[in-house]
Design brief:
By secondary structure, this protein is α+β, with helices and mostly antiparallel strands. The chain has three helices and five strands.
Length: about 200
């Protein structure tokens, strides 16, 4: 009887040892491995994020000259000040180069647009010339050194030409031209980039 119990007790003892080893050695190690894997996965994810950011920065650095050129072009087309004397000179030169006989310009005070963050300057204009003179003037307006848009234009037959004569081939015109500036107050002596209620041209 005793000889039969000995193997049974030995088997139970081995089983207890195995269970103890699993509980106190294997399972904790498995937990450590799981934690280490989680840490590794987080590190890999962070590395991928950093590499993506690095690539974006390298791309931005490569495109920097192009971006600077674009910014310079925008600042040229939309200057930081309204510069009314310079604006009138541009328009007058465009009219003279187009061959228009009579032309007058009347700029209005700038208006700040909260949507675009820019100020718009409306210029009422009128004059006379041939059809081709007017179309040439329109082309020169669209290709001014600063951004401009002809908002409205009306044509009528006849007009005061050189020597105050009237010709059926001459057209009189009136229109409204819109220009832009990043000066949010657009008034004389204004500070570019600031907007004060009640201030303006």
């Amino acid at each position: 009887m005793g000889s039969r119990r000995a193997p049974l007790l030995a088997g139970i003892g081995v089983a207890v040892v195995i269970v103890a080893v699993v509980l106190f050695l294997v399972l904790p190690k498995m937990g450590e491995v799981s934690d280490a894997q989680t840490t590794l996965d987080a590190a890999v994810s962070e590395q991928q994020t950093l590499e993506s950011q690095r690539n974006a920065l390298l791309d931005a650095e490569e495109r920097a000259p192009e971006a600077k050129a674009t910014i310079a072009e925008v600042e040229r087309l939309i200057p930081p000040v309204s510069d009314e004397p310079g604006l009138l000179l541009l328009l007058n030169n465009a009219a003279m180069a187009s061959g228009l006989d009579v032309v007058s310009f009347a700029p209005s005070p700038g208006t700040f647009d909260e949507t675009t963050g820019l100020s718009t300057i409306a210029v009422s204009l009128s004059g006379s010339g041939t059809y081709f003179d007017v179309t040439e003037f329109m082309y020169r307006i669209e290709t001014l050194p600063r951004a401009a848009k002809m908002s409205t234009i009306s044509l009528a037959p006849g007009g005061a030409g050189e020597g105050a004569t009237t010709s059926t081939s001459t057209l009189s015109f009136t229109g409204t031209l819109t220009l832009y500036t990043s000066d949010t107050s657009t008034g004389p002596g204004s500070v570019p980039g600031t907007q004060s209620t009640g201030e303006g041209a």
